[in-house]
Every structure is written in C-alpha cells, then in structure tokens.
Specification:
Elements lengths: L21 H14 L5 E2 L11 H12 L12 H15 L8 E4 L2 H12 L5 E6 L3 H9 L3 E6 L10 H7 L4 E7 L11 H12 L5 E5 L15 H4 L7 E6 L12 E4 L2 H12 L7 H12 L3 H22 L5 E2 L7 E5 L17 H12 L1 E2 L1 E2 L8 E5 L4 H16 L6
Parallel strand pairs: 1-11, 3-4, 3-5, 5-6, 6-7
Antiparallel strand pairs: 2-8, 7-8, 9-10, 10-13, 12-13
Helix pairs in contact: 2-10, 3-10, 4-5, 4-9, 11-13
This protein binds 4'-deoxy-4'-aminopyridoxal-5'-phosphate (PMP).
Cofactor: pyridoxal 5'-phosphate
Protein name: Aminotransferase
Family: Belongs to the class-I pyridoxal-phosphate-dependent aminotransferase family.
C-alpha cells in the first residue's frame, strides 16, 4: 500500500553520488523473478554456502548462557583481542598490542572507520581496479577522492609498481590492497608485493590498507603473505584488516577486525563509539572460537572451492566470446565478455555493454551474475562460485546455451 501522505524526503548531498549496491540490486531482481516462479540461479552474492561450524555456534550459545549479552569494551573484549593478536602472530607473523586492535561490525565497518577517521575533503585513495565496490563508495562517503587504477586481465588484475608510482600525488593518503581480490580472485604473491612496497617506502606520506579477508581461500599451493610482515618498515603506516565472514562462513554474525598503529586505531574507535559502539557481544564470543578453534576444515573448504573454480573457469573460458583467467583465490571468477558485446540477441537487441549482457542473461537464461562495470572494469562480469557444483553446472550450461543464440557482431 502506498503512503497516503506524499514524502518530501531530501537525501543529504553526501550520498548523491552513491547508488544502491548493484550486487544487492541484482539479488533483489533475481528474488523478484524467482517469486514469479522462475528458476533463477544466483551467482551474484559473495558469501560461502557452507554453514557456520558447530563449535562456533556452541561458543555463542555458551556465551549467552554465561550472560555475555551486554555492551562490551568499545573496540572488543580483552579475550577477543587476545585471540586476534594470536591469529595475527601465528598466521601472519605480525605482532600487535591490544591498543592496536579494533573489532567492528564486519570488516566493512573497519574500512569505514578507517576512512572516516583519516580522510579530509579532497584526500586521495588509490584503488586498483577492479575493486570491491565498497572501497570507492566509502572513500566518497568520507569526502575523499578514489583514484582508480585499471589493472587488466593481461597484468593478472594486479597493480604494477609503475602504475602505483604514477598514481601517487602529494594528496594521496592511502593505497588499498586486497589479496585475494573480490571481484577478480587475483592474489599478490611476495614477488608481486615487493615492488609495490618499495614504491611505498619512497612515499612516506602514503598509508596502506590491506584487506586479507580471503587469505584462507587460496589454491594450488599459493602462499598468502601480508604486506606489513613482508616489509616491517611499513608496519607503522599499515592497517591490516581481516574478519571471520568468509573463512568461517560467518557473514551474518558481523564481526571483522583490524590491526594497525595505535593513533589510527584510536581515531577509528572515536568513529565507532558514535556509530555502532562495540560489535555484538555474542558474535565476539563466537569469533574467539573461530580463531582459536580447529582450523583443519579451512583446507577442506578451500579444496571444495578449488574444484568449483576449475569447473567454472573451464566452462566460461570454453564459451566463444568469453575468456576467463584462472584466479589464485577467493570464490569469484572474473570473465571478459568483450567478445559478446555488439552482438544481437534472438529478441533483436544489440548487447551494448557488460550490463546489457548480464541483464540479458538474467532475463533469458535465468542466471544472475554481476557486470564488471559495478567493480570499475567494464567488459567483464563476476561469477561467484560459492555454491554447489550441480548448480554451477546448470548455470554454466545455461550461459553457454544463451551465448550460442547470439548473432554475429552488428
Ligand atoms: N573485504 C572484501 C574484499 C569483501 O569481499 C568483503 C565482503 N563482501 C568484506 C571485506 C566485508 O566483509 P564483512 O563486513 O562481512 O566482514
């Protein structure tokens, strides 16, 4: 039912340039079509299909039983910070004091806190492209200027040292690095990081925001290394971000964390204190169990993701007009679709852009994927393969069949 009284709501200027996340919009469109009885396969969302392990759920229940249902210390309980410090030490070779750690409502909030706490109007943030949509939108929301540096498939979707050097100006505050990457799945090995870190050593005014969310989802023996460990001289200006959402299948618990210089963390905590306060006490208890508990299932899950990656990459790459690089990690394939742009659909429409292609796949092939434009790199689309193999096979067959119906380029 429509409201009887017309609303004259005027959004704030700061959100004028921002749209609703295209990924969420595509998910909503898929849900709408599904409600009409259509069998839409959704490869849009970025979340593991696995369930949160039982020992983690149990820890949450036990915390509730103990009465841990109240506000906690602003940046996280002492017990959670101990677990986070242990994780950074054990898995990443990074040492932190509790005052250098902040736990927040998802890694997304850690990023938001950091940008809110550090950016003044006009400050620049270098973002290798394709990027996770939140990066550029949060920078804009905080008054900063995203400096998008295109990193094509030919360069492995990875930022090069020369590109970084050229992008740095006196206004640069941050470089954002995400490895393995959402959306490309590309990861930076030590040999890829080293030249970038050397550039940063020459630019002492530039800080480094590292997003290691997918560090446990890597394939073929890839060795994840985090920049602040590889180059300790940068640790004093690096914020290393992680969380339990992806590795432990805990997206709904909303718990992420960061480790960095105390002054930065303190400023971030000011933002957090006036937005959300501490993250959920129950999620914090669950995260302790995730970080301190058994880790053996991580390798099993990564292997399950690898099989799916192989299936999806091979299927996409075999479709005339599409090409797909093999990603080193995360659960996304980022395929080029330039070869289908400009072609005519059986309905008589010319596919002008990656957005057209993805919309057409949804409407006629019942598969939801996200256009590269949403991640800053047109001519591509992202497939999330965090779903079972049968579903993936169905989706790949549908995309292949749809592409076969396309006419020659106009
Ligand atoms: N970083 C990256 C690269 C992501 O893909 C995501 C989730 N899509 C996040 C951070 C945020 O994760 P959360 O807020 O659930 O911790």
């Amino acid at each position: 039912m429509k409201d009887a009284v017309a609303s004259d709501f005027r959004p704030a200027e700061r959100i004028e340039s921002l749209g609703v996340s295209e990924i969420l919009a595509i998910g909503a469109r898929a849900a709408k079509l599904r409600a009409t009885g259509r069998d839409i396969v959704s490869l849009g969302a970025g979340e593991p299909d696995f369930d949160t392990p039982d020992h983690i759920k149990r820890a949450a229940w036990e915390a509730m039983q103990r009465g841990e249902t109240k506000y906690t210390a602003l940046t996280g309980t002492a017990a959670l910070k101990t677990a986070i410090i242990g994780k950074f030490e054990r898995e990443n070779g990074l040492t932190f004091e509790p005052s250098q750690i902040i736990a927040s409502t998802g890694a997304k909030q850690v990023i938001y806190n950091a940008m809110m706490a550090s950016l003044n109007p006009g400050d620049e943030v270098i973002i290798p492209t394709p990027y996770w949509v939140t990066y550029s939108d949060v920078v804009e929301l905080c008054g900063g200027v995203p400096v998008l540096v295109p990193c094509a498939a030919e360069q492995g979707f990875r930022l090069g040292a020369d590109q970084l050097r050229e992008a740095i100006t006196p206004r640069t505050r941050w470089l954002m690095l995400n490895s393995p990457s959402n959306p490309s799945g590309a990861a930076y090995a030590a040999e890829h990081l080293r030249p970038l870190l050397d550039v940063l050593l020459e630019a002492p005014h530039v800080w480094l925001m590292v997003d290691d969310m997918y560090e446990h989802i890597v394939y073929d023996g890839f060795r994840h290394v985090t920049p602040a460990a590889l180059e300790p001289a940068l640790k004093g200006r690096t914020l290393t971000i992680n969380g339990v959402s992806k590795a432990y299948a805990m997206t709904g618990w909303r718990l992420g964390y960061g480790g960095g210089p105390e002054a930065l963390v303190k400023a971030m905590s000011v933002i957090q204190s006036q937005s959300t306060s501490a993250p959920s006490s129950i999620a914090q208890a669950a995260a302790i169990a995730a970080l301190d508990g058994p880790q053996d299932f991580l390798a099993d899950r990564a292997e399950a993701f690898r099989l799916r990656r192989d299936l999806v990459v091979a299927a996409l790459d075999a479709i005339p007009g599409l090409a797909c690089r093999t990603p080193e990690g995360a659960f996304y394939a980022f395929a080029e679709c330039d070869g289908v742009i400009g072609r005519r659909t059986p309905e008589g429409r010319i596919l002008e852009t990656d957005r057209d292609f993805c919309a057409w796949l949804m409407e006629t092939a019942d598969v939801a994927v996200v256009p590269g434009t949403a991640f800053g790199l047109p001519g591509h689309f992202r497939v999330s393969y965090a779903t079972d193999t049968e579903t993936l096979k169905t989706a790949m067959a549908r995309i292949a069949a749809a592409c076969r119906t396309l006419g020659e380029p106009a």
